[in-house]
Amino acid sequence: MMGQLGAKLGLLLVLSLFAACSKKKDVTISAPPTLSQPHKNENQERWASYYDNKLQPEAFFSFDTIVFDLDRHPNLRPLSDREKLVLASISLGRYGNSRKYFADLKEQGLLLQKNPNETVSLIDIRDKRWTRHLIEKIVPSALQQGFGGVLFDDLESALNSEKKEPTRYAGMADAIIKNIKTVRLHFPSIKIMISCGYGILEKLAPYIDMTLSDGLLTTSNLVITQGKSPYELKKDNAYSLQIAELNKAQHINTQLKRYALDYWDNQDIKTIKMLYKKQQSLGFVPYVATPGWLLLSKEPGL
Predict the structure, then answer these.
(1) What single string gives the DSSP state of each residue in 139-194?
(2) Which residues does 161 contact at the CB level (< 8 Å), separation at least 6?
(3) What is the C-alpha separation between 228 and 231, in angstroms, rounded?
(4) Where are the domains of the chain?
(5) Burial zone of 263 (CB within 10 Å; 0-12 exposed, 13-18 middle, 19+ buried)
(6) 8 Å CB contact between 123 and 158
């Protein structure tokens, strides 16, 4: 009876985390931070994300870390010359039909169910051919363009598919870990950031350098109801489980840095200032943007 109860409680914890959103690196162990004692962003580091190529590199000189789209971005050379860390966003969940290699992946049967109203397909990341494609084509393409590392994005698509249909999509969570571990083994010197990944962060911690908490403090709804703001603030207890899991991951890898991304109306300067302050007080490198990452946002006052 107690075993069944424990299993149910464990399942509820994992589900609540989902809802919120080579050479192995040497790590050291220390006491984990608590909610009242988060890892601090001591040097006021700033980061940004931008998925377009309209801005000139100079627009990003005030940032330390910048995430760009793998295929659509400004000239990277002036940024790397200034020792900026530039990461290429790579999906480990869904693959767009306008992306390079789409036809090849589709022909191999590596793209699974697709929403008729969307232009993306779920990737079968469990297949060894996908892992080979990742380490032989996608990551090398990023490095050849001048990126210093990668952001593995959209992990939640793979995780949620297994959660919703555990038989059909069994092994998706394990495949995320295997893919990222394989990239680390083949590219030991690059920087690796992951987006969310709640439920498996502790297993990923030895192989990554950074985590990104997307929508940490806010929720946004692009389908705007008349008279209602598309943005809402979360209650403190809505993200406490995520922070607790991040703390455990930082216990395993004390060099792990955490970044936050929230969305808000760029005209509401007062709330944006509050979000930056709150993100940083919780130990995150902060950023507040507008959905879509097609506009560059800067912290008010900087």
Answers:
(1) HHHHHHHT-SEEEEE-HHHHHHHHHHSTTTTTTHHHHHHHHHHHHHHH-TTSEEEE
(2) 122, 168, 169, 172
(3) 9
(4) 49-289
(5) buried
(6) yes
| Separation of first and last alpha carbons in the chain | 57
Kindly tell me the burial class for residue 105, based on how many C-beta atoms sit within 10 Å of its own C-beta (0-12, 13-18, 19 or more).
Answer: buried
The neighbouring-strand residues paired with 214 are 261
Q: Which helix (H) or strand (E) holds 87?
A: strand 85-91
pTM tops 0.90 = no
- Do β-strands 94-96 and 120-122 pair in parallel, antiparallel, or remain unpaired? antiparallel
**CATH number belonging to domain 49-289:** 3.20.20.70
H helix count then E strand count, the chain: 10, 12
Using DSSP's 3-state secondary structure scheme, residue 14 falls into helix
Q: Would you give per-residue pLDDT tens digits along the chain (302 residues)?
A: 444 444 444 444 444 444 446 333 333 323 333 333 444 445 589 999 999 999 999 999 999 999 999 999 999 999 999 999 999 999 998 888 778 888 888 888 898 866 666 678 899 999 999 999 999 999 999 999 999 999 999 999 999 999 999 999 999 999 999 999 999 999 999 999 999 999 999 999 999 999 999 999 999 876 555 556 789 999 888 899 999 999 999 999 999 999 999 999 989 999 999 999 999 999 999 999 988 777 899 888 75
Query: Which stretch of DSSP H or E encloses residue 232?
Result: strand 231-233
Distance between CA atoms of residues 299 and 286, nearest Å: 9
Q: How far apart are CA 293 and CA 68, in angstroms?
A: 9
Cα separation of 151 and 293, whole Å? 14
Query: For residue 99, which of 137, 155, 66 has the smallest C-alpha distance?
Result: 137
